[in-house]
Please model this.
Amino acid sequence: MIDYLVTVLTEGSIFAIMALGLNIVWGWSGDFDLAFYGYVALGAYMTLVLTVGPATDPTTYILGLTLPFPLAVALAVVSAMVLALIVGAIALRHLRGIYFSIVTLGAVYVLYVVTGQFVPLFNGYNGVSGLFDPMGDVLGLDYSSYSFFYLGLCIAVLIIVLLLTTRLNGSRFGLALRSLREDERAAAAFGRDIYVTKLKAYVLGAGLGGLGGALYAGYLTAFNPSAWSPVETIILYAAILVGGRGSTRGVVLGVAVMVMGLQEATRYLPEIANQPSFAPALRLIITGVVLVLFIRFRPQGILPERRFRDKDPAGKGDAAAVEPVVTGPKLDTGAA
Amino acid sequence: MTVLLEVQGLHKHFGGVQAVEACSFTAAEGQITGLIGPNGAGKSTAIDLISGFKIPDAGKVRFEGREVQGKTPHVISRMGLIRTFQSPREWPGLSVLENLILACFEPRRERFWRSLRGPSRAEKEKANAQLVEARAILDEFGLFHLRNERAGNLSGGQKRLLEFARMRMAKPRLVILDEPMGGVNPVLGERMAAAVLGFVTAGTSVVIVEHNLPFIERVTDQVVVMAEGRVIAEAPFDQLRGNPAVVDAYLGELPTYDDAES
Amino acid sequence: MHEALLTLGFGLVAAAILSLSALAFTLEYSVTNVANLSHGEILTVGAYCAYLVQQHGGGVILSGLAAAAGGGLLALAVHNGVVDRFVRRGIGGLPTFIATLGVSLVIQNVLVIIFGASNLGYAVPQGAPRTVGPFLWTDTEIQIMVSTVVITALLYVIIVHTRFGKSLRAVSQNRSLARVSGINANRVAALTWLLAGLIGGYAGFILAESVGTFSPYSGFSFFLITLTAAVAGGLGRAVGTLVGGVIVGIALEFFGGYVSASYNLAFAFAILSLVILVRPRGLFVGGRRSVFE
Ligand SMILES: Nc1ncnc2c1ncn2[C@@H]1O[C@H](COP(=O)(O)OP(=O)(O)OP(=O)(O)O)[C@@H](O)[C@H]1O
Ligand SMILES: [Mg+2]
Model:
């Protein structure tokens, strides 16, 4: 039972990291990016090929180094960001709305097909494997305590990511991103460089996706194309939508409901139905239904994005009355 | 009297429609310049071309002596030329106060790393000052009680006022207002007139597109008349009445406005 | 026979299937302004309907009709159940697009639960290849070509020469204007989706015939190529879409024949991205524009 809990929590925190990254792109900057899972996958693959050592005969993949896990994770994040920079630089230049989504969908399919078909890259459809208990031997952990260690690691990373996003959330950068989401033309009329700002958000989001992917690779010990059909992105979108698009706490809640909760709720189904694909299929059906219902009836989610509230009934622009009440950080880091 | 904005021979066509054709006029510093003309005259298109939202087929735009045609909207905006749109473009999902704060573009504070590091002492003080100023401006426009409201929930007229408030907050060198009175009731019109005049006091010159001619007569120093993409007259309002081209373009509408007002 | 001509022959068959699918997609788009991400599932459902009929001894004609009926009903259900409600509530094109992605997920996985996730074989007696003009086609391929030409011609007549077609064009140009001038826009949109579903379902059937296997996911993969054709031709423009379908279909077959068939999908998307970046309104409309135009 405790093992099961550890599994669910580890997966939950990894998906929360990914969802927080996607939330920057979709929640704040407002772009429906279907390539996101590609960055997750690249992060996972890079982590593997940087740590597991050279390929042995039937398998082939690039690099094959034996770097320490943290360094490999950092490099994986960087490569995801570089890929996002390339895709974003092309797609964000002129495209918005469905055209942007279609091109990013195209990008991820190209990546998917190339990964699967071009075997020398990441060993094709068989994928890369062999990352057992990263950092376990350095820290001298045995198998049973290792899963607790990895859970702790994932939660620690999640907390750092949460601190980072919360800080950005109320910052001028976060506010400027919101203005792009709300009305691009007005944002440009008031001096915002839409392309560069959106691109920054896109690359940052992809970096968090890559980070989630890197941790996912350490958790799964292996990665192959069947682990990341591009449809996977929809689950992250469903989590964000249910929790509250743009809202950091909402996204965490959304992952808890749509990833961990749904997993838990459909856990005993395979035995009942006596059909291996039944539970995953049912989960996807529920995800699809939830997506439709939330867009229709509660697009702001369970915990909607909060706006900055100015509490100062008597303040009407009187500097003396205002100064003690509202302080800088409130505007800059308070939940906007 | 120094020229702030100089438009020279702008052309723009959409398919077969020549929306703007050889459009030339100037707007002077410290003045309110009206831009009028019948529907479809090409006024909004001209604004789009000047502010970089559309790319002209030919022609030059000089702002403060520098050529800006073909530059992107944000570059032109940062030079101090901000325009409004024919339909209000507030940031609907943000609060009214946030709309005002966002009107001040601050390149340094909006950078990613700065935002991550948090504001410095000086920046905190500046943010405070901004907040105080934003409240004062909102109060002036009668929007103070709505400052925490979602901007998208304001009424049409309130959104127009919010656009004025944002402009006041941004303090550009020149504003171009595209039909700021559209859908605003006459009582609010008084407030609008005061607001437009207030820009000049605050050091912002104005170009204003408006169909309400009494309003134009009241606030403008100079009027540019467009019809079918061309500038057909450029003179103070009271000199326009005798101009046959202008009367023709308005199909005799111009001389009758006095009756309409009384 | 010359190899290039052979490839062209295959390319035309692929282009025929692709054009039908893209035409259906463009019809859906034209009346609702919603890019239907569950379009691929119309094809999939069509293929399953044809398969069921075939399993119970139905012939080619019966299977084709069943596929069309299944696709049509599904399209109508998606329109009336989701898209139309969203559009009427003023929910924009992008959120509705996302919702149709959810619909796609639901249909795919319902099929997985009913039929399983693996490939099913769709075996039809292909007949010996015979020469048709310069090409070498089997009976099935001839059936595909002929039926595509007939359907396209019928569609042309419907759109250009009937009252319904006139309303359809009016709604696709300007829905509210059409409504003001007395057209029941919702009904026209629903009928258009039904029509698109009939064509899409049939396209799924000939796709299964031509490939020989299909699965709950095959419609979605084919939809990705459909999207290339539809966008290349200009979303919502029927003639452009038809031309886009033919060009993309033939280009893919040549790429597959001479470069590598495994990268077909990647190649399709390379075309698509290029088209969207260079000519976002389709290959046949142009001009220099700023981002905001
Ligand atoms: N994006 C466009 N595509 C095609 N034609 C356009 C476009 N924008 C404007 N036009 C045409 O250009 C002409 C000028 O339009 P514009 O909006 O500039 O007029 P306007 O003077 O602002 O009119 P109004 O007073 O009604 O706002 C019109 O004939 C219009 O139909
Ligand atoms: Mg106009």
Summary: The first helix of chain A runs from residue 2 to 28.
